[in-house]
Specification:
Blueprint (H helix, E strand, L loop, with lengths): L2 H21 L10 H77 L3 E10 L8 E4 L12 E3 L5 E8 L4 E5 L9 E5 L6 E8 L4 E8 L9 E4 L11 E10 L5 E8 L8 E7 L3 E3 L4 E3 L6
Antiparallel strand pairs: 1-2, 1-12, 2-5, 3-4, 3-12, 4-5, 6-7, 6-9, 7-8, 8-11, 9-10, 10-11, 13-14
Length: about 290
């Protein structure tokens, strides 16, 4: 008989003897015998071996579900943040526009010598940014050429140049050379009179020329329209004197004035209509008073 066969017979005989001895071994009441304990332990281990992978799979499934919920919540938060940012931007724009319109309204209620007509800036080209702009008011609103145009703070911006039915072209004070000279004056005990007729683009200063040599012009003096010539109302703010130099003719001086209006950022302006102006009615000239349409 092969050696392996003999070993198997010996193993089974030993197992049978062990089982017989255990079977006849007295066991206390209520206790499990060794074979029963072995069977119970093997069964418990088998149950654990079967349930453990199922628990792992269930745990990973729950983690994946939680991760999916987290991604969905994160996406919802991102959408909320984008929506909030958009609403915040809209709020800021509306707030800024409301403040500008309030400034326009306050200025309209304090002016007495002229009627003010609010106008939105609807056209401005990059190449002529500091020279002209287009506003959404025209002849149907009572706008006429050579009327003053103001910023929300009341500072002079320019002059109406051309008027259409519903829009008007405005020439800024930085581009009045050769087109329209603005009669100006300094504010003080001894005012200095001159004409705004140029612009130093490099320094960002207006040139107020034709000031007599014997008239003192202190630096920092406020410059306003003088009303001389009957084109623009008197007292419109232009700016402040930053430097004074002798003119080329050596007979007068030129004051360089920093504009009071922010000419670069303009979205709403006011058109100043003189209450005592005269207009051509076709059969002659008549006085025009009252507030603008």
């Amino acid at each position: 008989m092969p050696r392996l066969g003999r070993l198997l017979i010996v193993f089974f005989l030993a197992a049978a003897l062990l089982a017989a001895s255990l079977a006849f071994t007295p066991v206390p009441r209520g206790a499990l015998s060794l074979p029963e304990r072995m069977i119970k332990d093997v069964a418990g281990f088998g149950a654990w071996a079967l349930s453990a992978p199922a628990g792992w799979v269930k745990g990973w499934a729950k983690r994946l579900a939680d991760l999916k919920d987290t991604y969905a919540e994160n996406a919802a938060l991102k959408r909320s943040l984008v929506s909030y940012a958009r609403l915040k931007a809209d709020y800021d724009l509306l707030k800024a526009e409301n403040e500008r319109l309030r400034a326009l309204l306050d200025l309209k209620t304090t002016s007495r010598d002229y009627a003010l007509l609010a106008a939105e800036v609807i056209g401005r080209e990059e190449e002529t940014w500091m020279r002209s702009l287009v506003v959404g008011r025209g002849e149907t609103d009572g706008v006429r050429p050579k009327e003053a145009v103001l910023a929300s703070g009341g500072a002079l911006v320019g002059v109406v140049e051309r008027v259409g039915a519903f829009t008007s072209d405005v020439r800024l004070i930085t581009d009045l050379e050769g087109a329209l000279n603005i009669a100006a004056m300094t504010v003080g005990p001894t005012p200095a009179y001159g004409v705004i007729d140029g612009y130093d683009a490099e320094r960002g200063l207006l040139a107020m020329s034709k000031i007599p040599l014997d008239v003192d012009v202190p630096l920092g003096s406020t410059v306003v329209t003088s009303g001389l010539g009957g084109v623009l109302p008197k007292g419109l703010l232009i700016g402040r004197v930053e430097r004074v130099v002798p003119a080329a003719d050596m007979l007068t001086r030129t004051a360089y004035v920093k504009p009071a209006a922010d000419l670069y950022h303009l979205d709403w302006v006011l058109i100043a209509r003189r209450l005592d102006r005269t207009v051509d009615t076709g059969g002659g000239r008549s006085a025009e008073g009252g507030a603008g349409r």
